[in-house]
Design goal:
Elements lengths: L8 H9 L5 E5 L4 H4 L4 E7 L2 H10 L3 H10 L1
Antiparallel strand pairs: 1-2
């Protein structure tokens, strides 16, 4: 599958607003080595508003955030 979705206005809106509704971009380009999944700009996951905001603040993917929560 290609990454054309990242060039849409919908993707740009999601990047700026998704955390306000509790969603995160599940498989980020810069986190492929951690998630072991190729970048998927169309794949968003609900984690709750508080978690989404904190994950974005810390620039963490879900795997990193789970580890962070278990160890803090």
């Amino acid at each position: 599958m290609n990454d054309d979705f990242e060039n849409t206005s919908a993707f740009k809106w999601l990047q700026g607003n998704a955390e306000n509704y509790g969603f995160i971009l599940r498989y980020k380009k810069e986190k492929e080595d951690i998630t072991k999944v190729d970048y998927e700009p169309w794949h968003w996951r609900y984690v709750g508003i508080e978690n989404a905001k904190k994950m974005n603040e810390l620039n963490m993917c879900l795997e990193e955030y789970i580890y962070y929560l278990k160890n803090n």
